[in-house]
Amino acid sequence: MNRAVATVGGVPVPIGEVDAREAELRATPLAAALPLAGTSEGRQLRRWLTQLLVTERVVAAEAEALGLTSAAAPAEDELLPDLTARLEIGSVAAAALADPLARALFSYVTAEVDVSDADVAAYHRRNPMRFATSPRGHQGWRRPAVAPALDQVAPAIADHLRAAARRRAFRLWLDARRAALVDLAPGYEHPGDPRQPDNTHKH
After folding, report:
1. Per-residue pLDDT tens over the stretch 18-35
2. What residues pair up with 67 in beta bridges, in sequence order?
3. Cα–Cα nearest to 52, from 185, 191, 176, 195
4. Under 8 Å between Cβ of 104 and 73
5. pLDDT per residue over 61-80, tens digit each?
6. The CA-based dihedral angle spanning residues 185, 187, 192, 195, taken in that order and rounded to the nearest 10 degrees
7. With bands split at pLDDT 50, 70 and 90, how would you rate the model's confidence at 155?
């Protein structure tokens, strides 16, 4: 019997989809780093895969409701340029953003997100060297970096803060849509849910 691990908007997500996604992972070079099936960590991996599957369904449903396509989706490295960005948005959302449709939805949801001049100035006061450069001196030696004036780095700071704000806005929006649409079956709770027995993050 192909029982459901979750429902998304009332539509079941069969356990076979988790099995298939896990099998795909275990057939890649990552297999050696994956936890053994049937262990506590192995069950956590299946919970994570369930989160990814339901997130993909939420994205598809929301994009369809909004009439979005992947045609004008930004590149993945534009939204997630480094490990810090991936950590900020969370591993499930970061994995979901491999799909161009999810990136198109990200752009739609975060289109109005911006930062103020006051935010930029406050960031520069707290991090005066963040965008400093070391100019090349005589015979290729680099001179010590000097804190740049605000007007020199304001565009770079604004881009940096806006990108982080957009990631946060999308994460919060996605969390809210999952809470509204997803019902997880026992044994397939969120990996971080303290009520499930395999959660090892104790206080």
Report:
1. 999 999 999 999 889 999
2. none
3. 191
4. yes
5. 999 999 999 998 999 999 99
6. 90
7. very high
